[in-house]
Design goal:
The structure holds 2 protein chains of 2 kinds. Chain A is mostly helical. In chain A, about 75% of the residues lie in helices and about 0% in strands. In chain A, helix 4 (about 85-115) crosses helix 11 (about 255-265) and helix 6 (about 135-150) packs parallel to helix 10. By secondary structure, chain B is an all-alpha fold.
Chain lengths: ~300, ~325
């Protein structure tokens, strides 16, 4: 095809179109109107789906909610079964993994934001972290199983589960902490340097306190992720029942979502209802965590102005 | 600790000219260096995690591939890892097709709905609609996957699908739908970010030419944000491929479900095992260490890791490569 013929066809079509051009304002307006409705419907469907989801849980689970569910240990008899060991296991796992992810994740974020030179190595660390965030959670389970459970001899214990979970939420903590640190204005650092402070003094006494609300929000959100995460703990902890609450980091553990999985996969209908009740407990705890994070964000975003 | 330096000279002698000695340099330098090395160590731990993941998967699946040839693993159509002795066959294709089928079904839900929601939120919604719809999407995103699994098993299958379709109690369809609902908020929020990054002037130019709001959104704003939108699609599919609990509960990987993989590789109305579902199921039924079944888990894990890793890389590449840059 030559360039000349190409140009002439364009000219021809545009000429024929311009003679036949009709604005079709009404029909185009109608189409726009219909699509507006479709876009809205698709978005509103999310509300419907959330409603269905909640209904599917609250419906069967409501009558099984009781104090007994929270205080009793698992049992083969649905009426006597509770999730006490799972609640305590979740508390152990989530707090230890949060402490681990807080220390390492914040350290990594400070390094990348304040210390790291701009070079390929730093770029590599950054790309690596965003890739880690996309690794399926069950693969972390395989990592934890081999390294913590087997090689480091921790067995199927709280500490093995918590460290696995800590590695899993690490990228989230790093990314949110970096954002919080980046939001601290440069002038604050320069003022601190101007008074003769060293880099670490500046970071510790000025940057971190200013970035703290954002960092805390990130930690809380990552903890709520850890509370609901199941897959890596199936691999690390196994899905067998645990009838006591952990008393040390070397005890076996059960966590809430694993307990739910265990109950859901039993054929008896009663256990399904029990699972629904346990989900309600889990969701209430999650809601509490998220509300705290939202409140923190709102409280501090009003207070701090730069 | 880099504490404030203690004045030495001022306290001992008479009236010193300089009461404060600010030159505790050695001490300060040392602790500064220590802190720096500690922070660097934290960053290196993230790199070590990646090396650990890749190393473990390679190391353990090397053991597996000594017994089963890679070619047979990748092309075999029978997966009976949980059988005994000669019955054991390690053809991973049924798991792969199970994974791809559920991921595909989830994409059919999350992509159109997520993109529509993103367009609505970014182009149409007023402040009040946003203040209701955004939190709903955030809530959906925050629901633990085990809850989606429960939802798929006890609601989607019996209430939404049974009246219309001949589906088994465990099926790939309900799991796919649940994964689609789970990844919907991700597509919506990432695409919305991309749409919002398109400058206002582009929209105004389109309106100035007489385009309707729909035409502006779909023919001007969406194409301008296409890199971010496609990246969000790929990320959602990658998430669907790696999703474990929903398929473990609802697709037939659960202990109450069947262990045998159904005959039809793509039959989503019956129980279906995915790569993740197989790993979760095997561990919840206590696998013997050192058995070829145990090592097969790492072969499957390696394949899963490679698949999701490639998708994430492509997603990042698309986001960067085809991004329209505005001043």
């Amino acid at each position: 095809m030559s360039a000349g013929s190409h140009v002439s066809t364009i000219a021809a079509t545009s000429a024929s179109e311009s003679t036949r051009y009709e604005p079709r304002v009404t029909s185009r307006g109608r189409i726009a109107h219909v699509w507006r409705g479709l876009f809205f419907a698709a978005t509103a469907l999310a509300i419907v789906l959330l409603g269905m989801l909640l209904w599917s849980v609250v419906g069967p689970g409501w009558n099984w909610l009781s104090w007994h569910l929270i205080t009793a240990m698992p049992s083969r008899i649905p009426a006597q079964a509770g999730m006490n060991s799972a609640i305590w296991g979740s508390i152990w796992i989530v707090s230890i993994s949060a402490i681990f992810a807080f220390i390492v994740g914040l350290g990594c974020a400070i390094y990348l934001e304040e210390y790291a030179p701009q070079n390929r190595w730093t770029d590599f660390i950054q790309t690596n972290i965003s890739n880690l965030a996309g690794v399926p959670s069950i693969v972390y389970g395989l990592l934890g199983l081999v390294i913590f459970v087997d090689w480091l001899g921790m067995g199927r214990s709280v500490i093995a589960g918590a460290l696995t979970m800590g590695l899993l939420i690490l990228p989230v903590v790093v990314i949110s902490s970096r954002e919080a640190i980046r939001a601290v204005p440069l002038s604050l650092r320069q003022a601190s340097y101007g008074l003769g402070a060293t880099k670490w003094q500046t970071v510790r006494s000025h940057v971190l306190p200013s970035a703290f609300p954002g960092i805390l929000t990130g930690i809380i959100l990552s903890m709520s992720r850890a509370i609901g995460e199941t897959a890596p703990l199936i691999v690390v902890g196994g899905a067998s029942q645990v009838l006591f609450r952990p008393t040390s980091i070397f005890d076996p553990f059960m966590v809430m979502p694993l307990q739910i999985y265990n109950w859901t996969s039993r054929p008896q209908k009663d256990f399904e209802h029990l699972a629904a009740a346990a989900i309600i407990v889990l969701m209430v705890i999650l809601l509490l965590f998220n509300s705290v994070a939202i409140l923190l964000r709102q409280h501090y975003s009003k207070k701090t102005r730069w | 600790m880099a504490s404030t330096t203690v004045p030495q000279s001022g306290s001992s002698g008479g009236p010193a000219q300089v009461p404060l000695d600010l030159s505790g340099k050695r001490n300060r330098d040392l602790s500064e260096q220590l802190v720096k090395w500690f922070l660097l160590g934290c960053s290196l731990l993230t790199v070590a995690t990646t090396i650990g993941i890749i190393g473990i998967l390679l190391y353990e699946s090397f053991e597996f591939f000594r017994h089963v040839s890679i070619w047979k693993f990748l092309t075999g159509t029978t997966w009976t890892a949980l059988s005994r002795g000669d019955q054991q066959q390690f053809g991973v294709l049924p798991l792969v097709t199970g994974t791809l089928t559920t991921a595909f079904i989830s994409a059919l839900i999350s992509i159109p709905l997520g993109l529509s929601a993103a367009i609505y939120l970014s182009e149409y919604a007023g402040a009040r609609a946003r203040s209701i719809l955004k939190p709903v999407l955030e809530l959906l995103a925050g629901v633990p996957t085990i809850v989606y699994g429960f939802f798929a098993l006890t609601y989607i299958t019996p209430v939404l699908l049974k009246p219309w379709l001949k589906v088994g109690a465990f099926n790939g369809l309900s799991a796919g739908i649940a994964i689609g609902i789970m990844t919907l908020p991700m597509v919506a929020s990432l695409s919305e970010d991309a749409l919002r990054a398109v400058p206002r002037s582009l929209r105004e130019a389109a309106y100035g030419l007489g385009a309707t709001k729909f035409e502006t959104s779909v023919r001007v704003v969406v194409p301008a944000a296409i890199s971010g939108i496609i990246a969000s699609f790929i990320l959602a599919i990658s998430r669907a491929v790696g999703e474990t609990m929903i398929v473990a509960v609802a697709a037939g990987g659960s202990p109450a479900g069947q262990t045998a993989v159904s005959k039809g590789l793509f039959d989503f109305t019956q129980s279906m095992q995915t790569m993740t579902g197989f790993i979760a199921y095997t561990f919840s039924s206590d696998v013997a260490r050192g058995s070829s079944q145990f090592y097969s888990l790492f072969g499957v894990g390696l394949l899963l890791f490679v698949m999701t890793f490639l998708m994430n890389v492509v997603s990042q590449w698309v986001a960067r490569r085809y991004r329209e840059v505005y001043e």
